[in-house]
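[INFO] parsing input record for Max-like protein X
[DEBUG] input buffer:
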Amino acid sequence: QAEQKRRDAIKKGYDDLQAIVPTCEQQDFSIGSQKLSKAIVLQKTIDYIQFLHKEKKKQEEEVSTLRKDVMALKIMKVNYEQIVKAHQDNPNEGKDQVSDEMKFNVFQGIMDSLFQSFNASISVTSFQELSACFLSW
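[DEBUG] output buffer:
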C-alpha cells in the first residue's frame, strides 16, 4: 500500500507538471490522446523553467533601465524647475545665458546618478572583479 501511494503521488506529480507547463499540453491524435513520457515531461519542464528564468532576467534588466531613466528625468525636472525659478526671480537678466552655478548643478546631478549606478554595480574587492564589473556597467 505504501508503495502504491508513492507511485500514485509520483504519477500525480507528473500529471500536475503536464497540466501546468504549457509545452506539455496533451496532444490529440486521430486515435485519441496520448500521454507524454515522463522523460519528455521532465525535459519540457526544465526547458520551460529556463525560459522563465531568461524572461525574468530580461524584465529585471528592463526595470533597472526604467529606474535609471526615472532618475535622469527627476534630475532634469529639478534642474528645469531651478531654471524656471531663476528666470521668474530675474526675468530680464541673462536671457540667453545659463549661470555657472546652474551648469554645476546639472553636472552634479548627472554625476551623482552615475556614481550611484557605478557604486551599486561595481565590486572593488579585486582588480579582476573591478575590470569585469566595469565592462558590464
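[INFO] Helices lie at 2-20, 38-89, 100-121, 127-136.
[INFO] shutting down worker
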